[in-house]
């Protein structure tokens, strides 16, 4: 398992307050509670487990995602790395004309055991729609592919898509450790007031047997 450290988990949970919701602001990060280490747990494996849980795909070796493809909603985007800023806030993708998704680097890489977290904007201020503008349209059974730095690909199958009020964000379900390779895609959704969206859209997906 590749768990998040205490501080990284707390910071990740704080992402739910504003991730992917940019209007005209260039920084949607929020402050993480103090304490803990911001690096992955030292026992995290760098190679696939030899005995995956029954009914799940064998985990992949650690390799950073470089591209994300979601054919059903026409997403084909480079993936940048996101972490924690020096002041303890969580980074989100920059608001730019050529919007990109971002992988939270204190989560497992796609295909490792645990929840790999990828964030994206639904809108990018004066530039219009964000890369995850259609995320809420995904349906159970549809495919998500993360292409990795080592030349392999991790293919996931969507289990569910949930729209939740930010006040009720399910941090443990999204960022909590699991015993299989999983993927979480997060953006904003629901009604919009000014630059703020009321809800978060969360995609839960599991590594497919076709992962390669």
Tell me what you see in this structure.
The chain is mainly beta and about 210 residues long. The chain has one domain: Sortase, Chain: A (Beta Barrel). Helices cover about 5% and strands about 30% of the residues. It is built from 2 helices and 8 strands. The protein has helices at about 5-15, 170-175, and strands at about 65-70, 75-80, 100-105, 115-120, 145-150, 155-165, 180-195, 195-205. The protein has an 8-stranded mixed beta barrel with strand order 1-2-3-4-7-8-6-5. The radius of gyration is 16 Å and the shape is globular. The two termini are about 20 Å apart. Residues about 25-50 have low confidence and may be disordered.
Describe the SSE topology.
Blueprint: H1 6-15, E1 65-70, E2 75-82, E3 101-104, E4 114-119, E5 143-148, E6 153-165, H2 171-175, E7 181-193, E8 196-207
Parallel strand pairs: 2-3, 4-7
Antiparallel strand pairs: 1-2, 1-5, 3-4, 5-6, 6-8, 7-8
Short structural description:
This protein has 212 residues and is mainly beta.
Keywords:
212 residues, mainly beta, 2 helices
Radius of gyration: 16 Å
Helix and strand sequence: HEEEEEEHEE
Q: Mean pLDDT, as a whole number? A: 79
User: What number of structural domains do the residues give?
Assistant: 1
The global form is: globular
